[in-house]
Amino acid sequence: MANEALIDCLNEILKHEWTGVAQYSQASFIIEGLWREVYASKFEGDAKESFRHAKLIGDKIAALGGVPVATRNEIKQSKDLREVLEFSLAFEAKAVEMYTKALELAEPHRSLVVFLEDILLEEQEGVDEYTKLLRDTPAAHASMSGEPVRKSS
Ligand SMILES: [Fe+2]
């Protein structure tokens, strides 16, 4: 069952999840201004979710007879909230893509498919959430810049 391509694919995912732990933690550390109140804990929660996924995938790689990686990719960081949200959407979309690819390799092992599908659902929720946060309505735009919404004269 433990084929090399699958373990390699899971290790790429693990690397991505470790990247998420660092990237979201950093975002929560450095966010400043009014929106810190909301987004510091939002990003911390996402770092914890990445850690939870890393733990699941690392344990699974070991169970399959592989060696889990302990490295990560470069993180993206910015003090501009909108940019951080864009990085986050790209991060979650990449995770969806990676778990979808792993699912192809996991067939026909049913329990592994279910295991990966559960995580894939959470990654898709991340995509949906960041897509909504980035939706460009005038009110959202004004509030993101920290300026009050002005009435048009
Ligand atoms: Fe994840």
From TrEMBL:
The keyword Oxidoreductase applies. One of its GO terms (biological process) is intracellular iron ion homeostasis. Residues 1-141 form the Ferritin-like diiron domain. Its EC number is 1.16.3.1. InterPro entries: Ferritin-like, Ferritin-like_diiron, Ferritin-like_SF, Ferritin_DPS_dom. GO terms for molecular function: ferric iron binding; ferroxidase activity; heme binding. The keyword Oxidoreductase applies. GO terms for cellular component: cytosol. Gene3D superfamilies: 1.20.1260.10. PROSITE patterns: FERRITIN_LIKE. It comes from the Bacteria. Keywords: Iron, Iron storage, Oxidoreductase. Pfam families: Ferritin. PANTHER family: BACTERIOFERRITIN. This is Bacterioferritin. It comes from Aporhodopirellula rubra.
